[in-house]
């Protein structure tokens, strides 16, 4: 039967340049311009030149963009485009192709794709060119899907909350309970497990990357597999994918040109086709249920029923909050408390935990909080950490002047509100053009639309006491060692981490001092990783490639990086190197918070540029 061929080719004179990307194809359809022979007037720019992932962007006189794929499959293979003037191109749509198909009750059921299926039917005498051959068959789907939409108004919560031990009368699993668990295990597995899917929206394509969303409980396994496949990848920081994180997803950016064709083929077979529409991607993420957060530290799971009842939250203590009541963007608080040798008076070590009953009522930023996060005084907003969210009421914002930063009296007032050392204020913010303070009132943990009271605060731990507010595993200690190694710490430093890990395996818990240092090293590596990610993104957008890699010559800093060798150098305009990553060995020099903020500002500029590009409508000149 004839089947329309959806391939649309772009021609330069009589020669084929490549195939029009699906998103660009849809844009032309919307303006009824996708017709065979229609002319285009574009400036061509090569974005990726490697293998079967090579593509160019065509810019119209009105600044709209079309993506043209598979450049290396046709007449201009290996050629680089960097047009300064517009050139004339032509659209070529393909005629329908004849395909082998299966009919049911005289209507097309589907097209046969696989050669082995066609060969098997031919051997049975059922597949004959140009003829319909009847045959009895049993048709079965290879999967089943049930889509259930629940009206929230119909969900009723019990007036009396019953705990598991109250329902079954024992802490052990009885036969009735076991039967309920076994009967629901299969569907619970599918409900809890998050799907894996590939996506490549317009902004991803502009940067030459492909997105991969996976269950965040499989992130480490996926990262190892991608590394084994020699795919250049970077896990996106959770503060950049808050919505995906709430859904239980981890997001990776894969450098498209580094994905071997066979690997990409296997991935699409296993995970399905690549999502290329931003709307479809948003719908896919939003369709997933929010993954619940734990309300109590893991050690409470071992408490007796009496203890659980004493510490658990009663229904009267839970405040239901509709999503529309939460204003603005979440504000990141996953940073360690900066003590600078001072004794930490509270038994927690991060900003987010210091908000949870330990008196942190203030945050400091290098920009206006109201403008940056989209909230105002009196609103309820969210602060985010790795595994928790805190709801807070927004207070007044005010500008912190250089005189205030240098004033010891204000430094102490600031430290009392922030729970950092007073020394942290001048170290972090001296020299910034603007510094803003924001008062806030923590309300409780935010879980599944509810504001839940914080756990009861603990007394301060001495340096040799264990800290129970952060659950530590041997994997955390391995990650600490890896972070120290990547940060270029000395062998003696890493040897001390090994000693701490051995003591931990022998049954000893981490001291407050060790936990503080571990968090600081982990946070420092996150800052370095963030800087590296932004630098590579800058290179993809503004960089110029040569035989040594990619270079960006900026007004303040110069960048040079080589993705294949994983090298990155950032230097001042006077040649002074402030960041040097060569073959996995890192050296930093005067890498101040101001420099990190400068790169964050440039990253925001890139977001604005891409957002503007996405909202433009196709308006091509003939």
End-to-end gap? 36 Å
Calculate Rg over CA atoms: 29 Å
CATH class of the largest domain: Mainly Beta
- Average per-residue pLDDT, rounded, comes to 78
Q: Can you give the helix content as a percent range?
A: 25-40%
User: What fraction of residues sit in β-strands?
Assistant: 15-25%
The best one-word shape is: globular
**If you consult CATH, what is the topology of the largest domain?**
Archaeosine Trna-guanine Transglycosylase, Chain: A, domain 4
Count of extended strands: 27
Low-confidence stretches: 293-318, 460-469, 617-622
Q: Work out the count of structural domains.
A: 5
Largest sheet: 7 strands, mixed
Summed up, the helix count is 19
Features:
alpha+beta; single chain; six-stranded antiparallel barrel; 622 residues; globular; disordered C terminus; seven-stranded mixed sheet
Summarize it.
With 622 residues, this protein is α+β, with helices and mostly antiparallel strands. It folds into five domains: 2-97, no CATH class; 109-133, no CATH class; 197-286; 315-452, Archaeosine Trna-guanine Transglycosylase, Chain: A, domain 4 (Roll); 474-610, no CATH class. The strands form six sheets. Strands 15, 16, 17, 18, 19, 20 and 21 form a seven-stranded mixed sheet that branches. A six-stranded antiparallel beta barrel has the order 2-3-6-5-4-7. A six-stranded antiparallel sheet has the order 22-23-24-25-26-27, with helices on one face.
